[in-house]
C-alpha cells in the first residue's frame, strides 16, 4: 500500500489512465440531466476504481467526485478526496489527448496533495504541501512576466466581453484548453502566463491544480481575489484566477469587483 497521500494519488492516477485508455474511441456516451454535459462509461469505470481503491486505503477520508452522488458526511471529516475522474470528457469523446485525471486531498479547506495526469501525453503533474511542484519528476515554476499587457492567458472566449472588466479589456493573447485541470498545470509550468475562468467552478475541476500552482510559486484566488477554500457544502467556488504573482495581481485588480461583476 502506498505510504504517503501523494504516493497513493500517483498510483491511483496511473491506474485511472490505464482504464480510461482502454475505452478510447469506443466508450458509450450519455447526456447528464439538466444540461450538465456528457458522461462516458470510461468516466464511470475510472470513478468506480478510484472510489474503491482510495477509500479502501483511507477509510476515514471523505469523498467528493464529479461522478458520485454528493454526501454531506464529507463535511464532518478532517480530510476529503476531491476527484474528477476525467476532466475534459468532451475531448475524450472526440479522441483528443488533452483530457486529464484530477485527484486531490483537502484538509480543513486547503489542498495538501494533488495529481493531474494526462495519460495520452504521459504528463504527470504532482505536488504535496511544502514540497514544490513537479512534472514527470522535474520541478516546475510559473512565468515571471510582470505585465498583463501582451500576456498569454488560457481562458474561454467570453472572458473578452467588456462587462467582466472595470475599464477596457486588457490586451492579452488568449488561448484555450478544454480541461481546467490541464490549464492550471500549464500555468504552473510556465507555458502560459495566467489562466482564469469567471463562472462558478466545481471544486473537482481545480482542486489539484490549485496546489500544483501554489507549490510551483504561482498565485491563485477566486475571481474576486479571495483565497480558494475547498470541501464547501456547495462544492463550487466563484471562478479561479491564477498566474505569476504580478500578472495575477493585475488580473484581479482589472476584473470587475463584487458589486459590479455579473453573476454567471
UniProtKB/TrEMBL annotation:
The keyword ATP-binding does not apply. Keywords: Magnesium, Metal-binding. Pfam families: Inositol_P. One of its GO terms (molecular function) is metal ion binding. The keyword Hydrolase does not apply. One of its GO terms (biological process) is phosphatidylinositol phosphate biosynthetic process. Its cofactor is Mg(2+). Coiled coil: none annotated. Mg(2+) binds at residues 66, 84, 86-87, 205. InterPro entries: Inositol_monophosphatase-like, Inositol_monophosphatase_CS. Belongs to the inositol monophosphatase superfamily. This is Myo-inositol-1(Or 4)-monophosphatase.
Amino acid at each position: 500500500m502506498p505510504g504517503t497521500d501523494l504516493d497513493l494519488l500517483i498510483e491511483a492516477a496511473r491506474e485511472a489512465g490505464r482504464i480510461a485508455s482502454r475505452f478510447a474511441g469506443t466508450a458509450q456516451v450519455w447526456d447528464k440531466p439538466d444540461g450538465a454535459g456528457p458522461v462516458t462509461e470510461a468516466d464511470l469505470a475510472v470513478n468506480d476504481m478510484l472510489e474503491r481503491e482510495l477509500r479502501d486505503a483511507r477509510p476515514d477520508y471523505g469523498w467528493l467526485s464529479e461522478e458520485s452522488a454528493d454526501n454531506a458526511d464529507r463535511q464532518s471529516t478532517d480530510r476529503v478526496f476531491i476527484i474528477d475522474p476525467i476532466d475534459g470528457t468532451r475531448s475524450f469523446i472526440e479522441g483528443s489527448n488533452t483530457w486529464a485525471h484530477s485527484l486531490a486531498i483537502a484538509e480543513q479547506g486547503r489542498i495538501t496533495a494533488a495529481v493531474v495526469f494526462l495519460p495520452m501525453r504521459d504528463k504527470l503533474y504532482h505536488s504535496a504541501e511544502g514540497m514544490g511542484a513537479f512534472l514527470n519528476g522535474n520541478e516546475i515554476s510559473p512565468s515571471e512576466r510582470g505585465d498583463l499587457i501582451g500576456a498569454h492567458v488560457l481562458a474561454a472566449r467570453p472572458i473578452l466581453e467588456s462587462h467582466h472588466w472595470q475599464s477596457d479589456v486588457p490586451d492579452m493573447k488568449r488561448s484555450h484548453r478544454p480541461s481546467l485541470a490541464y490549464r492550471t498545470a500549464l500555468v504552473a509550468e510556465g507555458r502560459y502566463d495566467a489562466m482564469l475562468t469567471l463562472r462558478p467552478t466545481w471544486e473537482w475541476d481545480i482542486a489539484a491544480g490549485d496546489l500544483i500552482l501554489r507549490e510551483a510559486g504561482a498565485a491563485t484566488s477566486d475571481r474576486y481575489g479571495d483565497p480558494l477554500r475547498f470541501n464547501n457544502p456547495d462544492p463550487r467556488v466563484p471562478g479561479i484566477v491564477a498566474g505569476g504573482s504580478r500578472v495575477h495581481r493585475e488580473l484581479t485588480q482589472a476584473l470587475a469587483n463584487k458589486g459590479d461583476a455579473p453573476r454567471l
